[in-house]
Amino acid sequence: MAWQFSTDRLAEIAVDHRKIIRQAHGGIPTISGVSVTIRQYEPHDFASMYKLDQACFPPGIAYSKTMLRYFLAQAGAECLVALDGGKIVGFILSEENPPLAHTITLDVAESHRRHGVGTALVGESEANLRFRGVRTVLLETATTNEAGIAFWERHGYRKEAVLKNYYSGRLDAFEMRKKLIAAPGAGS
Question: In this structure, are residues 122 and 89 in contact, taking their beta carbons and an 8 Å threshold?
Answer without folding.
Answer: no
